[in-house]
Design brief:
mainly alpha, Serine Threonine Protein Phosphatase 5, Tetratricopeptide repeat, 18 helices, 351 residues
Length: 351
């Protein structure tokens, strides 16, 4: 029997830290101030913007406006295409799907027009980002088709970082589609690349996928150690989105073991990190798990309040993935009300 995984000590105080100095961003800004070449400037703005997407929603919003303004004016189409691609990531993260698709389409058209290796790789990166958009929205078959197209392009090139991201995504999509053998195949492919990748965000995403796979095998202690490694990476880099995802998955692991009290704590942390990262989707999904934990702890009044708010937000976001929770929420709300009414009737009988 697996032992109960220990709670992460840093999660107890994790939300006390504020946006710390980011040496990479500071370095990029320093170079930007000294650069006169327009192509290099836009490239640097793209890099700064990409870093802020994972760490600081407010700054990301400012840089989104800057790079889109520069992209429309520049004559350098490759940098313009990458600006549109990164803007697509930003809009997807804040759940503005129309704007995300609009920018991804602009990026795809430009990358496709180059008809060279750099254009092909840029096009495949954009496909991966588009696939992620459908993946998060619960449209797994569309995401699968897009990821497979990206994979077919990237396997021709030495692009381990983005290919690792594709393999992670393909493993996850196949799990959702109950194709476990395919999922394991892609997880093995991801594992073979993981030591060749230095990008901390992509590395953390791989480790989360690997830990989640262990959870489904009930290897909780082993998974807990990997989640802890992910949190160290994410906390060091102020990756709020990944901190949210990891706290959510750790909470899910605890709920699988019936530890709903601690699961609630982690899902609340996840919701707060999601708020900091600007993801309404992740915030809503985390609060759904908080409500579910309270239901299982028979705290029906509290569960009702949380689930009602979550139900409203899920319907507003129109996410297929979140809407899969709606029937469960409605059933629990009805049962909770029935149980509360029954308890009240017993109390009245005693009067």
């Amino acid at each position: 029997m697996e032992k109960q995984p220990r709670l992460f000590s840093f999660f107890i105080t994790a939300l006390n830290f504020i946006h710390a100095k980011n040496p990479k961003i500071d370095s990029l800004k320093s170079v930007l101030q000294k650069t006169e070449n327009d192509s290099v400037k836009l490239n640097l703005l793209n890099s700064i913007f990409y870093e802020y997407i994972n760490t600081d929603t407010a700054e990301a919003t400012i840089y989104c406006e800057k790079i889109l303004d520069e992209a429309e004016k520049t004559k350098y189409n490759f940098e313009k295409a990458d600006a549109f691609r990164i803007a697509g990531i930003y809009f997807g993260n804040i759940y503005n799907y129309e704007k995300a698709i609009e920018n991804y389409e602009k990026a795809k058209i430009l990358f496709k027009s180059f008809n060279n290796d750099a254009g092909n790789i840029g096009y495949a990166k954009t496909l991966t980002n588009v696939g992620s958009l459908f993946h998060r929205n619960g449209d797994f078959l569309t995401a699968l088709e897009i990821y497979l197209e990206a994979e077919s392009i990237l396997t021709k090139y030495d692009e381990n970082t983005i290919l690792l991201k594709v393999y992670n995504s393909l493993a996850d999509v196949h799990l959702y589609l109950n194709k476990n053998e395919k999922a394991m195949m892609y997880m093995d492919k991801a594992k073979s690349l993981s030591n060749l990748v230095n990008d901390p965000a992509v590395k953390a995403e791989y480790l989360i996928s690997y830990a989640n796979n262990l959870v489904y095998q009930n290897k909780f202690e082993e998974a807990a150690k990997i989640y802890e490694t992910v949190n160290l990476i994410a906390e060091k880099n102020n990756f709020y989105r990944l901190l949210s995802v990891c706290a959510y998955d750790y909470g899910f692991m605890l709920s699988r073991q019936g530890n709903y009290k601690d699961a609630e704590v982690y899902c609340l942390k996840s919701a707060e990190y999601a708020r900091l990262s600007g993801s309404k989707f992740d915030q809503c999904d985390a609060m759904y798990k908080v409500g579910a934990a309270n239901y299982h702890m028979q705290k029906f009044d509290k569960a009702n309040k949380i689930l009602l708010a979550t139900l409203k937000q899920a319907e507003e976001l129109k996410s297929k993935l979140l809407q899969r929770n709606i029937p469960w929420i409605r059933r629990r709300l009805r049962w909770n009300l029935e149980k509360m009414a029954f308890k009240l009737s017993l109390q009245l009988l005693r009067i």
